[in-house]
Amino acid sequence: MLSELKKYNILVVDDEPLIRNSLYEILRIQGYNALTAQSGEEALEVLKRQPMDIIITDMQLPKMNGIELLRLVKQKSPDTEVILITGFGTIESAVDAMKKGAFDYVTKPIIDSEIKMTIQKILEKKKILEENKDLRQAVAQASRSSYHGLTGASQKMQKIYSLIDSVASTKATILITGESGTGKGLVASAVHKADPNRKDKPFVEVSCGALSETLLESELFGHVKGAFTSAIRDNIGRFERAQEGTVFLDEIDSFSPNLQGKLLRVLQDGVYERVGDTQIKKTNARIIVATNRNLTELVASGKFREDLYYRINVIPITLPPLRERKEDIDLLVSCLVGLHSKKNNKKITGISDEVREIFLAYHWPGNIRQLENAIEVAVIMAKTPVINKWDLPETFRTKDIQSKPENGKSLKEGLQKPEKELILATLEESNWNRNAAAAALGINRTTLYNKMKKYGISFKKQKDKVA
Length: 467
Fold this sequence. Notes:
Blueprint: H1 2-5, E1 9-13, H2 17-30, E2 33-37, H3 40-49, E3 54-58, H4 66-76, E4 81-86, H5 91-99, E5 104-107, H6 112-141, E6 146-147, E7 150-151, H7 155-167, E8 174-177, H8 184-194, E9 203-207, H9 213-221, E10 222-223, E11 235-236, H10 238-241, E12 246-250, H11 257-269, E13 271-273, E14 280-282, E15 286-291, H12 295-300, H13 306-312, E16 315-318, H14 329-343, E17 350-351, H15 353-361, H16 367-381, E18 386-387, H17 394-398, H18 411-429, H19 434-441, H20 445-454, H21 459-466
Helix pairs in contact: 3-4, 6-7, 11-13, 14-16, 18-19, 19-20
């Protein structure tokens, strides 16, 4: 193990001899090839002579500060990762530096375990990048049509399979993004199943947007008897249930500022407390988070912590919408027809050419979740072994299914219109019962409320219209 580590060159830059020498000794004991420099200028001279994998630098240096050193390092050696050492008063600057390319920051006084963990994350990232090169070549030679519950042979899905292969056995936090219905939960499950050390351990999923702040905190961390009015007994949380396994937090954007701070503590230190308790508990569960919202916009508006964003966005996986991988529709339809035929005790062999043309022309605002809903309805309604147009939900029989936007409108606007129409149609079919509509759409009630607000769909206006 030590011989493998020694190939990594790490440079410590600090004008304080005590800190510089202390870090040097820690790195040498760990088996790294450690070097030191007293200033930014000296660090650049070292970098000219020998390439560095990692540079650990103090923010406050004479003449050239850590931010300026970071800028010059990234210009000269983009693959060199930089860790900043900062005092509590300059954390805001350190977070800003992460946007400019720093990998992470550690605060004074420096804790040995924290610096070791940060270095380990960098080495895992480097390993992933190296392995990805080989995997991309392998993908070009042989594609997979399915992968741990995911379905798709398109190039975009092959890249996702390859990325999961690379990150599955690491401890890196994963951020899964994509529109509603693209299969973020399936990706999280696939990561868990692909990890040889965790696949037989618990996979615990939490739909964060469906729970209130108090209930969500209790679900995640547990509570002790008497913590709140309905806490009649002790209860263990999801992190405790998922020991050595995986915790998947869907709709991470719904976390309150208070819970964001507590999740940050779990990510940084691996510790938490049950609600109403002072005893510190530890977790070694792997954390995967997902959202269909733009977190950078939430950070900019002050609704999501910037430091938490950088902690969860270690390995990003972005799922393409179904309209961007229509070459997978035939494969998905075949799988879904088989699944729902068996579930409903029907003998459906496939779909007609007309239905296939409809599916290929459709824009799929609800993505795979909407496709599955359409197939399930069609399987139930079908009177013959082959699904025909009139077996499909009304949306596919009466609406203009072409995916071209209206004249004068952007593609984004053109795609939003059918989503609004789908929501309106579902609300009308459910007699404006929002719980039933959310279930029919395959989303939770909070997501439905947000979309109604986005598109100006008012329950009050509808009542007025009826009146």
